[in-house]
Amino acid sequence: MALSYEDTHCKRCGKECTAWINDGLCYDCLREKHLEDIRESIEEGEPDTFSDEYIVCPYCGSAVEGTDAMLDFPELGVDGEHELECEECGKKFKVESLISVDWETHKMEDK
After folding, report:
1. Cα(55)–Cα(20) distance, rounded to whole angstroms?
2. Of the four listed, 6, 41, 100, 103, which is most buried by Cβ atoms within 10 Å?
3. Looking at the domain assignment, is residue 62 inside a domain?
4. Is residue 80 part of a domain?
5. CB-based burial of residue 43 (10 Å sphere; 0-12 exposed, 13-18 middle, 19+ buried)?
């Protein structure tokens, strides 16, 4: 069975991608949609700000890339709750870091 245009191109931006995997969206558009969904939940008064990409202010929806935030606030790389202040609206909020580590081992050459 051959793949269709819709299977291989993002329905939002038209970029060639594996659209059949992500509900018709490329990775960039999927990330944008996720952020839009978070902001919509904030506007509706039921904030769901869980994200593995962004730290989102639960008040105004301003978002910062999680990896960028960790450069300024290295404590975010430790499990637990941390306090941040939104650069957009100035309100303080808590960020819960959920850190996951994976391990893989390899044999070393015998000397």
Report:
1. 28
2. 41
3. yes
4. yes
5. exposed
16-65, pLDDT tens digit by residue? Answer: 888 778 888 999 999 999 999 999 999 999 989 998 888 999 999 999 88
Task: Provide the 10 A C-beta neighbour count for residue 38.
Answer: 21
Q: Is residue 25 part of a domain?
A: no
Domains in the chain, number: 1
Residues forming beta bridges with residue 54, ordered by sequence position? 65
Q: Which two tokens stand for residue 52?
A: 């593995």
Q: Provide the residue range defining the domain that includes 65.
A: 49-99
CB atoms within 10 A of CB 65: 12
For 1-111, where are the alpha helices, taking DSSP H only? Answer: 5-8, 27-43, 66-72
C-alpha–C-alpha distance, residues 30 and 77, integer Å: 25
